[in-house]
């Protein structure tokens, strides 16, 4: 029987004295709990690049607090979440620019990366100490999944001996005769973490944002063709199986989502959904049992204006449905880069609700239009005067703006730590929508009231997230009989995932807020 749940949203406004609450037009929203969309794989964030220093050098009390904010699934004595309970943690595998020092050509020390591989081909497993600390802190707090990713191959194997590409080279920066050496290195690394560190990587993503040239030395990175990606994926797949490793490969990490669904420019690694997942493609990955049936992309430069944010996700979803409706989509990296009329641009730190609400609208549209089964944030820890972090470190200011900033090196050793509204608003999704939940149908809502709902397949409980972008409070009148409202968590200017009790456990959604409602 079709179970349609009626939801009445009564949008109030205040009188001039704000003593009497009145209601404007009634907005009717229906929820069909039997119409399922994607199954959620998880919500995550990346450790690049700051965790290498914070995890290695910062005082333990500060590291533990950062880990609690990011990973904890526990509640305090008042019933408030201690953290956002990430279910996926992304770890960058460096290419060795750290060991090269200034000879690496990457001036910003924060953006260099350690490699376990020595120049003579031996391994130094003591490296990546900071990243290991966060991996184990995440594991201790119950994070379910770990993903390793590469921005570039080790400098030992690269064509130019660097962790970034040579100008004009659009192929993967890996010597043609060392693809096998690179896959061997990755397998050894995965085995080391599993056998010696007690961390099993559920996924490995070997190539990141292959559409960009990565030839300026701003960070580690490499372009790659679709043929390069297929060759590396095939070789790594075979070697993982040969070594009895259960790690799955994920492919895509497109720098913009339009590279997934159409041809963008000549000689570009684009149209990747068709290239890798059409059975008629010579690069079809569906025959490799340990390549996860997912394509991943990054939401950069497709979020403003809002009509572009909507249309690009519709096009992405349409192409997925044409090539293979069962192919999952992961939004695997995003922070605010593009200029927009709401919060300006990425530059200029903002720990408040304006940036948090910008993020949550992107999350909502990625989940409900593109049907993303995972949403992964760039980056977990920021040292910068930028809108790119969930938590921040600084020296009592807004962070650094480059390696020449007077605090740049001192901040590697210690600093103040700060949470953000973006952290807690992300937690309205990440903490309460767990792996295995299914998104269910919601009809209604409007441009200022974004509603999504997810069902726990074990007990049937429904988790609803309501993003109120407007400046008016909203009150919901929901008949979920026999289900009743059991919990409510609110992030706004005054609260961080605050749990409601008594008379506050109601169906109102304050202006400029994100609310999670749990019905059982």
Descriptive overview:
The protein has 520 residues and is an alpha/beta fold. Helix content is 24%, strand content 25%. It has 2 domains: 4-38 and 439-519, Golgi alpha-mannosidase II (Immunoglobulin-like); 41-435, Glycosidases (TIM Barrel, Alpha-Beta Barrel). It is built from 11 helices and 21 strands. The strands form 3 sheets. A 10-stranded antiparallel β-sheet has the order 19-18-21-16-15-14-2-1-17-20, covered by helices on one side. It has an 8-stranded parallel beta barrel with strand order 3-4-5-6-7-8-9-10. Helix 10 runs parallel beside helix 11 (421-430). Residues 1-25 have low confidence and may be disordered.
CATH top-level class of the largest domain: Alpha Beta
Mass-distribution shape: globular
Amount of beta strand: 15-25%
Main sheet: which strands, in order across?
19-18-21-16-15-14-2-1-17-20
